[in-house]
Amino acid sequence: MLRTVLQLILLVLLLLTYFNDSFMAAVDSFNLLFTESSRPFKGCRDALLLLGIYYATKKSICILSDLSVGVRTYLWPKVSPTDLSQYGKWAVITGGSEGIGRGYAFALAERGLNIILIARDMRKLQSTGDEIRDRFDVEVEQISADFNEGPSIYRLIEQKLRGKEIGILINNVGVMPARPSPFLTNDSDYLQRILNVNMGTVLFMTQIVLEDMVSREKGVIVNISSIAGYNPLPLMSAYSASKAFVDYFSRSLQYEYKDKGIIVQSIMPSYICPSRENDFSAILTTPSILCPTANVFADSAVQTIGKNNRTPGYWPHGLIAWSISQIPQFIWYPLVWMIQEQLAC
Ligand SMILES: NC(=O)c1ccc[n+]([C@@H]2O[C@H](COP(=O)([O-])OP(=O)(O)OC[C@H]3O[C@@H](n4cnc5c(N)ncnc54)[C@H](OP(=O)(O)O)[C@@H]3O)[C@@H](O)[C@H]2O)c1
Q: Signal peptide position in this chain (predicted)?
C-alpha cells in the first residue's frame, strides 16, 4: 500500500518535471507539503516498512526452500539415483495389474526387483506378469485377492508372502468415484470400498511387511494418496478424506520408524491418463505433460523414493500442488466447487 502511494507520488513528480519546468515550483511546494503532512505518521511508515521487509524476506525464503525441494526430488535422482534393490529382493504391488500399479511394477522390475502383483482378475494379472517376464530378467508372482472382502483376505496374502524378502511395498490399490457427486448420492457399496480398499489395505498390508523390514533394518513402503488429499474436495468428500487418511498415516508412520531404517513415502499425484472408462472429461483422458500415462508417472515416482517422503512424484504435478498450496481456503472452496460442478455434468 505504502509502496503504491509512493510510486504514485513519484509518477506525478516525473510527469510534472517532464511537461514544464515552470511546474518545478509546484513540485517544491508539493514536496514540502508531503514532508510536512507525513511527519506525524513517520512511526507508522517505519512500521509498515519493517512489515514489508519481513514479508518479502519470508516469501523469498519459502520460494527458495520450495525450489530446493524440487531440485532434491526431481533433479538429484538423475545425478544420484537410489539403488532400490538394496532394500530387499521383492516388491509387492497392490492393484498391480493396471494403471499406476502396473507402471510401478514395470519401473521396479527394470531396477532389478522381483515382483508380486495383487489384484482380483487373474487373467489381467497373468498378462501383466507375462509382459514383465518378457521384458526383464526377474521373477513375477501373482496373487488373486479382493481387498473389498475386508480383514479376512490378509491371512491368505500373509501366507503367500511368508519367507520372501520384501524390500518394497507399493500400497497402490484404490477406488475413485466415477465423477464428482453429492455425498448423499454415494451408495453404501461405494462407501464400503472406500473403507476397505482405499484405507484398510494400507493398514493391513503395512502390518504384514513392516515387522520383517524392521528386523532387517531396511525397507520402503510407498502409499499412493492423491492430490485430492491435500485440500478438502467437495463433491468427492469420501474419496478426498480417504486420501488425506493415507497421507496422514504415511507421515506419522515415517516418523515412528525413521530410526529403524524404514522409508514411508506418501505419493500425491494429480490426474493420470488413461483413467478408467467413465472419465470426467476428454482433457483428462488425452496424455499430456499435465496428465501423463501411468508408465511415465511411475517411472518418475520411483526415482523420488529416498529423496522426498511426501511428493506428487512427477514434477508438473509438483507445480500443480505448489499452486494449490498458495490458494487461501476462502478462495479454494468456491473455486473447487465451481470446477467440480462442471465435471459433475
Ligand atoms: N488415476 C488417477 O488419475 C489417480 C490420481 C491420483 C491418485 N490415484 C490413486 O492411484 C491408485 C491407482 O489408481 P489407478 O487409476 O491406477 O487405478 P486403476 O487403473 O483403476 O487400477 C486399479 C488396480 O487395482 C485393482 N483393484 C481394483 N479394485 C480391487 C479390489 N477390490 N481388490 C483387489 N484389487 C483391486 C485392479 O485390478 P482388478 O480389477 O483385476 O482387481 C487394478 O489392478 C489409486 O489409489 C488412486 O486413488 C489415481
A: 1-22
Cis peptide upstream of residue 328 (ω within 30 degrees of 0): no
Residue 155 and residue 57 in one domain? no
pLDDT at 23: 46
Q: Please name every residue paired with 170 in a beta bridge, in sequence order, or none if there are none.
A: 93, 222
* CB contact at 8 A, 122 and 144: yes
Instruction: Write out residues with Cβ below 6 Å of ligand 1.
Output: 95-101, 119-121, 124, 145-148, 172-174, 176, 197, 224, 226, 269, 271-272, 275-276, 294
Residue ending a domain, among 80, 106, 132, is 80
pLDDT for res 222: 99
Q: Which run of H or E residues covers position 178?
A: none
Element (H, E) at 208: helix 201-216
Structural domain contains residue 39:
no
- Find out whether 317 and 270 touch, Cβ atoms under 8 Å: yes
**Are 105 and 164 found together in one domain?**
yes
| Beta carbons of 233 and 239 less than 8 angstroms apart | yes
Q: What is the pLDDT of residue 280?
A: 58
pLDDT at 42: 79
239 is catalytic: yes
Tell whether 117 and 154 lie within a shared domain: yes
Q: In which residue ranges of the chain is pLDDT below 70?
A: 1-27, 275-283
Specify whether 71 is located in the same domain as 129.
no
For the beta carbon of residue 116, count every other beta carbon within 10 angstroms.
Answer: 24
End-of-domain residue from the set 33, 65, 80: 80
Structural domain tally of the chain?
Answer: 2
Same domain as 196, residue 285: yes
> pLDDT tens-digit profile of 239-279?
999 999 999 999 999 999 999 999 999 999 999 997 555 55
The cell numbers describing 69, all together, are: 525441494
Kindly report the protein residue whose alpha carbon is nearest to atom 7 of ligand 1.
226
> What's the rounded Cα separation, in Å, for the pair 130 and 117?
12
